[in-house]
Each structure stands twice: as structure tokens, then as C-alpha cells.
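[Primary structure, fold]
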Amino acid sequence: MVIVTIMVPMRFRELEECLQQLDGFEEPKIRLEQYSTSAHIGAHILHTAYTHFDDIGGKAIAHLGAGCGVLSLGARLLGTSHVVGFEIDADALSMLKTNCLELETDVEAVHCDPSCDESAFWLKTQC
């Protein structure tokens, strides 16, 4: 006997509601050009990538400048196989970890400064 699991895509509204639960930057750092991606915009970007381009389901995704994780976590909710978020700001990574707990999902987070040479500080953590 073979059991087949069919994954029903999350509806746009469900995705947006999940992303609305996430915390954003309390004090964005201007020098890092930080801003929070709204749940509405994030849901549109991710749902379009998922439904029209097949760019999310089962794929591995790297999120450069992951910030608080709206896009990373939304991609996980839509069924990516793996997400790695790269972020220069430790405070943003702390918020990303909090948001992972809120949604009860995981994103691999890498604290790094890509503007440095190969001896740059890279610290990998699991949210």
C-alpha cells in the first residue's frame, strides 16, 4: 500500500494572517537601511512566487538581509525544504529567532558581514 500526501497550498489570506503575528524592527538602523516588510506585501511576494512561478514549494532558499524573517518564515510556511537567512545585525537575528518561536517553525540563521573578506565573522544558528 502506498500513501500519497498531497500538500494543499496555503491560501493568501492565511499566509498574510500568519505573517501579521510577527514582530518587526523596534528601532530600525538607518545605516543598515532596515525596514520591516509588511505582512501584506510579504504575502503577495511569496504567494506569487509560489503559485505562478513554482519558486518555493520544496525548494531551498537563501534570504540575504533576512532581517526579522518575514520572507524567510513565510517561505517556510509555504513548504520550502530549507531556508537560510543571512543577516549582519545581531538584533535582527534575535527578532528572527523570536518570530520562529511565534510561528513554531525553523529557519537556519547566519550572522555575517558579507562586505568583509573571507575571514569575516560567520555564526550559524538554528532558530
